Sequence to fold (232 residues):
Amino acid sequence: MPVALITGASRGLGAALGAELAGQGWDLIVDARDGEALAKTVQGWSGTVLAIPGDVAAPDHREELARAVRTLGALDLLVNNASLLGPSPQPRLAAYPLDALEKVYRVNVLAPLALTQLLLPYLESAGGIVVNITSDASVEAYEGWGGYGSSKAALDQLTAILAAEQPSLAVYIFDPGDMRTQMQQEAFPDEDISDRPEPETVVPAFLRLIEDRPPSARYKASDVAANAGGRR
Fold:
């Protein structure tokens, strides 16, 4: 069975992806900061599911995830989905607490790279896939989104360089678009976000991406859904 590791899998897109891949027969390693929520989410998933609670920004937790990969003996897909929004509501850069910004960068930029570094031997052996989840805030200058947006911009560039340096892998920056998630509500605490699509609606585009395996690049879910290999 193919093996996938998905971070931030207790809710939102991570949970939707995990449920679908489990249903397709993948063996999974999943994590989230909230262990109780993670355990509840994976109840009923089929196949092998190793649910490991912890903060992906913590080196000892990343080592625990790597040990789980070693236990399964393979890794075909790494999805760096775990993200941190930062303060809610989002502060302007002029008043952004630097300690909070540092934490955002640890989770959104450094942790995905550190985890990828640990798992590269397994990914290279499998000719595997790395998917780093991004946001349109990485390419658009939205007022009040300087912390989260700049961290995702850094992740985009890091991912693009990783793709250039690791040609044996498929390395994707995947922009799912707006979704009805807890993070989206935290970003807009005073707004009704019921008009946003559910995360499950993005899963078919994600699956199409990893199944078609187009060239490493940045892809928007809406483009992939409209046209296989749609490329930003």
